[in-house]
Amino acid sequence: MNSERINSLLEQYRPGYGLPAGFYTDPDVWAADIEMLTPHWYIVGHGSQIPDPGDTKVVSLLGESVIVVRGSDGAIRAFYNVCSHRGARLCDESAEGLRQFTCPYHNWSYSLEGEIKSRRLEVVFDETFDPEAHNLRPCHLRVFAGLIFVSLSDAPTDFDAAYQPFEDVFRFYGIADTKVIRVHGFGATANWKTLVENTIDPYHVPVVHPNFTRTRTPAYWQAAAATRHAEVTAAADQAEREMDEWEAALTQLPNATGVIVQDGEHDEQFRWLVRGPLAPGYESETIGGKRVAPLMGRFTESDGASVFSNFNPLDSLFMSPDHATIFNIRPLAHDRIYWDTMWLVDSDAEEGRDYDVDEVCEFYTEVNEEDFPIWEWTYQGATSRAYRPGRLAPQESFIGEFQRWYVRRLRQQVETPATLSV
Questions:
Q1: What is the Cα–Cα distance from 290 to 303, expressed in whole angstroms?
Q2: How confident is the model over 319-357, as pLDDT tens digits?
Q3: What phi and psi values does residue 122 have, to the nearest 5 degrees?
């Protein structure tokens, strides 16, 4: 990591403008980004994906391969996908019903709890061999509302402090009692910050996402994306009245509305949690607004709302009363990312009777397809000699907040570099 190069970029940054190109294109920045992101907790799946002992999920996270496994005792654990002998990968892909991990290189084996158990060691090593020193390396793992979180750091951020504010909403929506019905991922030529900025940008939605735009009222989008000050002011007043009317009619979860959590540049996580109304007649965040699955959690009827939540810059969970969608940004290099989407419905819902998978996934499949070229176009522009950081519009204020958070965290990382726990 070239600290001088990064410090030069930090000096070029101007709040209220886009980031200088090097923040997206420089491999030295990429290396610092990985170190900066490591202490956070990341969603790597849902408990429903590994329901039985011996079920595993192999995930890629910040340059590491991690095995998430349900042990013989039913507990979920995570280990680096690295044999303690010569470092070979233990698993190439997820599996079901394993009884142990066996390295394909020298046949060393490990229990589902990560303890070395191969009897081949008895004839190879003498009494100086320490078996416990050769157990699999664990990763920090927490299960919260059925969601599996992993951190690669020796000293991760405080999980309970970060996510306790989400607990009541997630419990009401019954996320722990859901199941994953589809996972879809694809790669793109882009920097991870390109995607973060896109996902928190309301300014582009009326231009790029017609069906997403229909899920909110005209006043909502005028307030969020109009270009004239008078229009924004009038629309904001109307949107506030619509919010008040929706809140007054609520009978379910009435104390969790509006902006519940929103981190700024001085916070550690860059989290947010927002619950607000959909357009009149919309019961769910779908094309056309109809419900596409049975109600989840404690809902007895649709509340006509949706929830946007962000756990860190890379992981989001969006919820309607009948289904939920998880989005993961997985940085692979300074110019490559992998975007992963998971859809969830109530665990008791039966495919073909209660829901159609394609119908549940239709809305955000479309949104993903609409955003994909923008990620690549924006990154391509940053690589051009003609690129200059443009002025952020008032409607892009949250992007500006993220960029200030990022620059602050990156500056701290350069001043006090950390290391991965491997």
A1: 12
A2: 999 999 999 999 999 999 999 999 999 999 999 999 999
A3: -65, -30
